[in-house]
Amino acid sequence: MAVYTDVPDEELRAFIAEYAIGEVVSCKGIAEGVENSNYLLRTENGTYILTLYEKRVAPADLPFFLALMEHLAKQGIPCPTPIHGRDGGALRKLCGRPAAIISFLDGMWPRRIHPYHCAGLGGALAQLHHAGAGFPSNRANDLSLTGWERLYGACAVRADEIKAGLAEELRTELAELRRLWPHELPRGIIHADLFPDNVFFRNESVSGLIDFYFACTDFFAYDLAICLNAWCFESDGSFNVTKAKLLLAKYRTVRPLSNAEIEALPLLARGSAIRFLLTRLYDRLHQAPGAFVRPKDPLEYLQKLRFHRGVTSPTAYGFDS
Question: Taking a C-beta distance cutoff of 8 angstroms, is the pair 107, 208 a contact?
């Protein structure tokens, strides 16, 4: 369960009293997610999400994330919005952690990915990229090249405990990504973590995008690469080109891709794969004693990295030759 911080009843009641949302009816931990402590909060007035920010989320970044959600919602993106307290503030502290209450979205994330999910995701992602254009703030992606190298440095000595030869393979890959990484692609606000459990559907339509706590300013095509890795591989590790083609085609109906973006996609997909490989590797090697969360398997993303390293043309992702 993604609950790192237990909230005593007395502290919860005092916290909720700072909002005009009625008294607490129930508050239950949410199993999904690995970064923060999340609770499904029900009060006399409705249902909300209570989040205590932990681990990788820097407190200084929280105003950016909360303001971004409000901006995107005003642009028609179905995303949660922060609930403001009686004092007008949306961010405060609970149990020594930064905390906020956000609105609850209806829908379910897909446990089994069908092609129509990928098509819906592609359109929603492109709309998000358009909607972020008017947002006045920027945030550097702290999990790009320099961040990957920092994570590698924290894992290299023990990486071979997970798989023999892993440390050297990662070192070589990082050096090549540093040498080849593009600099001039179209960029703007991206989600940077749009995994299936962050996308809600009702029937076959996207009903919500959540968890904006890695959002940043980076290449739009890098966001697409993250989605290719998260949505288009099957449980046996094979790449489903039909799903990828639908995702990319629907995206392009809303926001066309330049030739440079298309050509860069295999490299960006390698970068996306190593980003999640390294964060999972770090979590596996540095798991806190007694933590409720089981770290995800980093080797899933090693397999994806190797697939993209073998791609010689964007046609492997369903683009026409």
Answer: yes
